Recover the amino acids of this structure.
């Protein structure tokens, strides 16, 4: 879906039964997949390195960043299971919560942080109405800033990846993660065309935050909409990014992961797919990647590449 049709769909989306939503998107994505086969899942033009490129910390070949968007209460209740899985395989990740869509447990937030993970804000509501007017966005931004402060969070990701990067200077953030190198299946489908972070500077104040685009297809796209039964696309894209020395940033959702505690539903996939992905990184690329939390990547980038720019921004 593109343009006004796309935006209209996401505005009326709450009125459409969930099963019908999934059916519509499954039909449409088959058309999109053919149309965009030259730029998805790999856009060959996205591998250009920043002009002043000097590499990742400690001479590592590429970077690995794990993020989880917690869209609904179901996902919220699975966060600690997912945290334990990441931890058991030697990884740390960020969990992005939607504070006014469900009750976010202070215990879960503290547990995540105490185990060396990160908490971020994923909008206030999971809707597409943030940018109807600048006034609406500024009112929501003020509330988002309150949660950022309360949670000691420095990162943001917009619901459904809707973004206006210039407007995000209203947010008290060190980084945003609402973009992607290439993902024609998102409502705001314009990719930033890079597998590296970049700075987003405010021309008037010269303040800047770091943009961290996700660079692997989302789990919902692969396993719910396309109904893939393996992680071949993830592995192939990871190999391509590693070859070009970029940032492997994945966005997955506990909402759609089945941890073996009930029957697999039409909107779930076995959590072993995600575990297989982590094991693939460990076994094939041991010692070759810099694994870091989003906030640490943003701080590294700000210190070393504050003037970097993407080829285009969404």
């Amino acid at each position: 879906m593109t343009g006004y049709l796309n935006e209209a769909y996401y505005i009326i989306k709450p009125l459409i039964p969930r099963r019908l939503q999934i059916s519509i998107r499954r039909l449409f994505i088959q058309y999109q997949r053919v149309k965009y086969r030259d730029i998805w899942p790999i856009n060959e033009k996205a591998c250009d390195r920043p002009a002043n490129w000097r590499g990742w910390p400690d001479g590592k070949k590429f970077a690995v960043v794990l993020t989880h968007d917690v869209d609904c209460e179901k996902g919220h209740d699975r966060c600690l299971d997912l945290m334990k899985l990441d931890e058991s395989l030697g990884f740390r990740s960020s969990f992005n919560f939607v504070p006014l869509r469900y009750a976010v447990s202070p215990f879960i937030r503290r547990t995540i942080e105490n185990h060396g993970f990160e908490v971020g804000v994923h909008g206030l509501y999971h809707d597409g109405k943030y940018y109807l007017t600048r006034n609406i966005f500024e009112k929501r931004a003020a509330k988002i800033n309150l949660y950022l402060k309360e949670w000691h969070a420095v990162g943001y990701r917009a619901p459904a990846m809707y973004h206006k990067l210039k407007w995000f200077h209203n947010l008290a953030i060190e980084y945003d993660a609402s973009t992607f190198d290439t993902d024609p299946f998102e409502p705001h489908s314009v990719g930033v065309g890079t597998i590296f972070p970049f700075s987003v500077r405010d021309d008037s104040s010269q303040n800047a935050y770091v943009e961290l685009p996700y660079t692997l297809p989302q789990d919902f796209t692969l396993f719910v909409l396309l109904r893939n039964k393996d992680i071949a696309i993830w592995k192939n894209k990871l190999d391509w990014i590693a070859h070009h020395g970029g940032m492997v940033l994945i966005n997955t959702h506990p909402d759609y992961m089945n941890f073996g505690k009930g029957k697999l539903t039409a909107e779930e996939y076995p959590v072993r797919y995600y575990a297989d992905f982590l094991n693939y990184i460990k076994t094939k690329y041991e010692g070759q990647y810099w694994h870091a939390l989003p906030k640490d990547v943003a701080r590294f980038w700000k210190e070393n590449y504050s003037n970097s720019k993407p080829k285009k921004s969404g």
The chain is about 35% helix and 15% strand. The radius of gyration is 18 Å. The chain has one domain: 3-42+51-304. Residues 18-35 form the longest helix (18 residues).
